[in-house]
Amino acid sequence: MFFSSDRKADIQCLFYDCKRTCICFNINNILYQFKDGKISSINAKFPTAKYVLPLNNQYVVASSFGLYIYDDLVNSEAKQWLLNSWTREVCFDEKSNRLFAATNEGLVVLSFVNDTWVIKDTLLKGKQINSVSFDEKKELLYVLSFDDKLYTIDASNQTQQFFELPPSVHASQIRLKNNMLFIASNAGLYKFDVSTKNYTVFNRLNGLSSNEIMYMDFVGDNIYLATSMGINRLPLTTKQGAVSSKLYLDDILIDKKSTDANSLILNYNQLLSLKLSGLSYSSNGTFTYAYRIVSSDSSWVKLPASIESIDFQSMPYGEFILEVKLIDHLGKDSENIIVLKGQVKPPFWQRTWFMILEALVLVIVLLAAFKYRLKKIEKKQAEELKRINLENELRLVQQSALKAQMNPHFIF
User: Fold this and answer.
1) Phi first, then psi: what are they for 178, rounded to 5°?
2) 190 neighbors 201 (Cβ within 8 angstroms)
3) Where is 186: in which H helix or E strand?
4) Closest by alpha carbon to 168, among 207, 203, 216, 127?
5) What contacts 255, CB < 8 A, 6 or more positions away?
6) Is residue 280 part of a domain?
7) What is d(CA 217, CA 51) in angstroms, rounded to the nearest whole number?
8) Which of the chain's termini has less CB crowding within 10 Å, N or C?
9) 252 and 225 belong to one structural domain
10) pLDDT band at residue 79 using 50, 70 and 90 as cut-offs
């Protein structure tokens, strides 16, 4: 839910006033209250505050001029100055009766002694501190530094860095609620689980008026956010896992010709195209398509929502199962997955008739080669036989001539 004031300026701070039971915020030295669904001005001369903490019927105010205490937000002036340095925020440990002030010089620790607040220690010295939040059950401080690093400080003042925001994200405030650390940033609201160190992000895609969040505070089951476009109220029970997208198959084309999904038979190397449309209102067009061919590969291939169609130029031949889904900006799948079953005919050199023809051609070639070889052998044998016959005839002629020359009487 979104609320806007009549002032065209950024909100300087936002907090819940338990005394007045309303949300208060400051714009250009004017203090407003948001109550019963209405915004009204309650102090037109309020100092530019970075943060206000209601404490023991008083108000601890952090500002660029220092840290001071007010008795009343409407009529009174500062009662006591606690710090002179630039202070962005403050939190209170009721058990130890200590204040923790986020300053440009570090985290200043103040204790209540003899009816006044005195400085006891400075933690993370030299670091600019943006925000601080206290876990009463664990007695653990969560501290956000100016360089977007998150630290924990335990009861013995042991400091440990446990998380760092992405380089492009700059945080302004942190708040702890139900073991969740909420981080206001220029990229939306981060919801960080301190146990698992996993986080989700709420931004304009979830309905916020702006990604630029400066301040926040809790009221019941809602979190109020001060953005550059006004105040947003976000339920703490928002379900990130709810399905909010659906995928539609507009057309199936084979070589740019429409076909029926029930008769999806392609020749080898034919172009299969799927025309899709997706509905994901919260994603604002930033969703992606994903597909996989189950018969050959189980991994999903992702494509941007801007494509006109998903094209498959070289489908593996044989039967296939093709699955297509939509993935929204939160990485959640669409409520439906389109499943297409079909067949790609093998190339002609892989088909039965071609293999039979190939075998017949091979047999014919082998027979022709055998006949050629046989004829060659027969021809060689005929030539050899002819030579032998000629030699025999020559011997007979020679023997006849020899006999004619010999003395017939001697022979007798």
Assistant:
1) 55, 50
2) yes
3) none
4) 203
5) 270, 271
6) yes
7) 11
8) C
9) no
10) confident
Domain that holds residue 382: 358-395
Residue 161 sits in a domain of what CATH number?
2.130.10.10
Q: How many CA atoms lie within 13 A of 281 on its CB side?
A: 4
The verdict on pTM exceeding 0.70 is: no
Q: Is residue 408 part of a domain?
A: no
176 with 256, same domain: the answer is no
At 240-294, the pLDDT tens digits run 445 467 888 889 999 989 988 887 888 888 899 999 887 665 555 578 899 998 8
- Say how far apart CA 309 and CA 251 lie, in whole Å: 9
Which tokens sit at 42? 């309650």
Neighbouring residues of 109: CB distance < 8 A, sequence distance ≥ 6: 98, 99, 100, 101, 119, 120, 121, 122, 123
The residue behind tokens 């939040």 is: 133
In the structure, how many helices (H) and strands (E) does the chain have?
2, 33
**143 and 177 belong to one structural domain:** yes
Tokens encoding 77:
């002036």
The CA distance from 64 to 305, in Å, is 46
The DSSP secondary-structure symbol of 74 reads S
* 97-100 contact pairs (CB < 8 A, 24+): 99/60, 100/132, 100/134, 100/141
Distance in angstroms (rounded) separating the CA atoms of residues 86 and 300: 52
Query: Partners of 282 in the beta sheet?
Result: none
Determine how many CB atoms are found less than 10 A away from the CB of residue 95. Answer: 10
CA pair distance 156, 163, nearest whole angstrom: 20
